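Milestone 3.1: sequence recovery, worked example.
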């Protein structure tokens, strides 16, 4: 689906820094961070890093969400490094349950979780992690603090941004009419999602009107939709439209998944859930690769190739894991396939400089 993107408008700020102009009416957007009070120092590190590389010039709001009230310490330290407004939200009890949902068989869920906990699967035995994945999959975008925003940028504690971010990614999303932006894509552990694909297929078979034409089915399946190959966008970094999740296709899809119980009987992650939806319900060109955003979340990094003017503190040598190289050259990456299918031709159209 090759297409020509329009060029962004440039401006030079008081320090002579070239950047794209946040249109006259600034994009209504916020960073969103789900965190525990104990995450405070990792949160501060992520915020400080993103402020230094980007937000100190833009001052977008920061929205923090937690199923427990944020401590004064968490609020003080995070507000201290943010240049935009900071807002702290308590997650309603109905959206982050104390126990299992009423329709989930608790005995079966507990047995499955304890069984997965014996295998070498990240968070296989964790109940809180499952609540987190369910919340990120189906609930966060309905939090009242997110009302009124068009886009959000998900940020987690303890991530790094390696490069100057010279084009406002929110403006990019809006200018190019994108709904879902990513940096890293990779394969999911199949053991965490044995029935996610059959459950998804049942949904699209029953609701074919929600499936976009064209779509990225070929990205998520190597056999025409029989099986899921595990390709997903790494959702710890995510820039997206809130109304994509709030709309009928995704709302009904999440409801269908939730009722099937796989967030608890298995360990469905929000990354494959969001990605399957983006692949099936969006036009391929509505997904966007932020190739110039240098990013690290343990254990992988994406370091942009040199020559794009974004001034990165990371290595593009294949000899230097984990700070390099461009993750799409890694064998675990699904981005080469995404590039091929979307007719991607290099980074965001942008006048490189510096
Ligand atoms: P990983 O990236 O899959 O290793 O999972 P993380 O531990 O980074 O969790 C993903 C996101 O959810 C991060 O933003 C965490 O701060 C947040 N998170 C994880 N578990 C909890 C929890 O029990 N409560 C809250 N409030 N946030 C959580
Ligand atoms: Mn994480």
């Amino acid at each position: 689906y090759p297409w020509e993107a329009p060029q962004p408008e440039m401006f030079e700020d008081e320090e002579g820094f070239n950047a794209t102009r946040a249109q006259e009416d600034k994009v209504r957007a916020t960073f969103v961070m789900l965190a525990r009070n104990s995450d405070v120092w990792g949160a501060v590190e992520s915020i400080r890093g993103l402020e230094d590389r980007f937000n100190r010039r833009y001052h977008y709001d920061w929205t923090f969400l937690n199923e427990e009230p944020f401590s004064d310490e968490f609020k003080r330290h995070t507000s201290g490094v943010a240049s935009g407004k900071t807002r702290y939200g308590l997650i309603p009890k109905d959206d982050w349950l104390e126990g299992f949902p009423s329709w989930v068989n608790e005995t079966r869920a507990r047995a499955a979780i304890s069984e997965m906990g014996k295998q070498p699967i990240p968070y296989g035995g964790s109940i809180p992690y499952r609540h987190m994945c369910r919340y990120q999959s189906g609930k966060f975008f309905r939090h009242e603090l997110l009302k009124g925003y068009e886009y959000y940028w998900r940020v987690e504690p303890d991530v790094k941004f390696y490069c100057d971010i010279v084009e406002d990614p929110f403006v990019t999303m809006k200018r190019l009419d994108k709904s879902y932006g990513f940096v890293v894509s990779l394969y999911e552990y199949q053991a965490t999602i044995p029935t996610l694909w059959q459950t998804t297929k049942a949904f699209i078979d029953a609701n074919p009107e929600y499936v976009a034409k064209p779509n990225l089915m070929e990205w998520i399946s190597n056999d025409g939709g029989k099986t899921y190959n595990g390709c997903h966008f790494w959702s710890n970094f995510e820039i997206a439209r809130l109304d994509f999740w709030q709309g009928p296709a995704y709302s009904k899809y999440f409801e269908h998944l939730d009722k099937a119980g796989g967030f608890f009987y298995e360990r469905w992650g929000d990354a494959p859930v969001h990605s399957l939806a983006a692949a099936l319900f969006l036009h391929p060109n509505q997904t966007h690769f932020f190739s110039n955003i240098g990013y690290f979340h343990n254990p992988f990094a994406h370091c942009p190739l040199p020559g794009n003017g974004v001034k990165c503190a990371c290595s593009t040598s294949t000899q230097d894991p984990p700070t390099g190289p461009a993750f799409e050259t890694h064998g675990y990456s699904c981005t080469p396939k995404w590039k091929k299918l979307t007719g991607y031709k290099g980074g965001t159209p942008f006048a490189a400089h510096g």
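The chain has a mean pLDDT of 91. Residues 124 and 347 are 37 Å apart (CA to CA).
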